Amino acid sequence: xxxxxxxxxxxxxxPLVGGLFGTGFWSVSGRDAGDARSGAPNLFEELGxxxxxxxxxxxxFLSGSLMRPDVLEAINSTAHxxxxxxxxxxxxGAKIAEMLQVEAAMVTSGAACAMVLGTAASxxxxxxxxxxxxxxxxxxxxxxxxxxxxxxxxxxxxxxxxAKIIEVxxxxxxxxxxxxxxxxxLFFNAARESSISHEEFVAISxxxxxxxxxxxxxxxxxVDNLFKFQKIGYDLITFSGGKxxxxxxxxxxxxxRKDLIEAAKLNxxxxxxxxxxxxxxxxxxxxxxxxxxxAYLELDHEKEWQDWLNRIDQIKSxxxxxxxxxxxxxxxxxxxxxxxxxxxxxDQDQVKITPRQVYxxxxxxxxxxxxxxxxxxxMNEILSxxxxxxxxxxxxxxxxxxxxxxxxxx
Length: 410
Description:
With 410 residues, the protein is an alpha/beta fold.
C-alpha cells in the first residue's frame, strides 16, 4: 500500500517547465514521462491526449474535478483485495448516513444514476416482480410531478426508469395533478425560477404520501447544503461525488428515507438484472466516495474560500499591468457552482482581441487552458477565469499565459 507521504510527494512533484509545455511533456498531474521515482508511464503522452488545466467549472466533459489525495489513497489502498459488494454498500452507506444525519444513504454512479434509482425505488418499492419489469411496470404508466420551469436535460433519468413527467405551475396545479398514478415529485434545485418553494413542495408531497426528491448535484459549496434538504423534509436527495466534493468522477450520493434507499439498492448492482445493473460502482469508487465526503466535511471551508480569493488577486496583479485590462471578482450566487471566479475585461480598441479569441488561444495550447466566455448585462462577451479547480502551482502559469495572450494583442 502506498503511504500518504509518498502519495502526496508524487502529486506535488513539479518538473521543470518552459519548453516542456509546448511538447506536451508536462503533465497536469505533476508527473512527467521520465519520472524515475514512480516508474509510471505518461499515458497522456503515450496516447496523444492533451492534458487540461481547468480554469472553468466542474464539467463532466472536462472529467469533473481532481480527486483529493485522501481519495486516491483510499482507492489505491483498497484495490488489492476483494469485497462483498452488498456488505460494502451497506456499511459505507451507514457511515455516510451518519455523517449526513439521515436515515440511510448509498453510493451511486453519479447523480444521474441516483435519479434513475430514486425513481425506480418510488415505482417498485421492494416488489421483485416490478423490479424485473422496469422500465415497463405493470398497469398505468407511473407519473412524476415536476415544475414546468424545472424541466432540464437530466430529467431523462426519470423517464429512463419508466415514469412519465407531469408538468405543473404553482402549488394549486401540483395539488390537482397528483393522482393514484403519481409515484414521486422531483425538485431541480438549480432551476432559475420556482413557482413552488421547497417547503411547499415537500408539504404537498407529504400530504399526498408521495416521495419528494431534490436534485442538488452541483450545489456545494456551501457545505451546509449537504444538510439543508433533509432538514426541510425531502425524502430523497442527490449530490454529485465528482464535483466540488472531489470524489471519483463516476460516483454520486443518494440519501434520505431508509425504505426508499433500500428499494434503490435492490434496483442497483450487484443485484443481477435490475434497471440499475449497468450503472454499477466499483468497490474502489465506493471507498473513494466515502473518503471524499469525510475529507470534505472536515475541511476548513473558510480558509479554502479565502485561498480562492487570493488566487484571483494573484492573477489580477499580473494581468492588470496591461493598460485597460481589469479583473473583477465574481461570486456566483448559485445554487450550482456557488464559488468565486474572475471576470476579465479590456478596451478592445487598445487590446485588439476578443474574449472568444483569448478563450480559443488558451484552449489550443498544450497543456490546454480551458476558461469560459460569458455575457454581461448588456449581452457583451466577457472572459471568465475559474480558480477553484486549479492546483496551486497552476495559478501563476495561468496568469502568465493569460497576460502573454493579452499583451501580444496590444
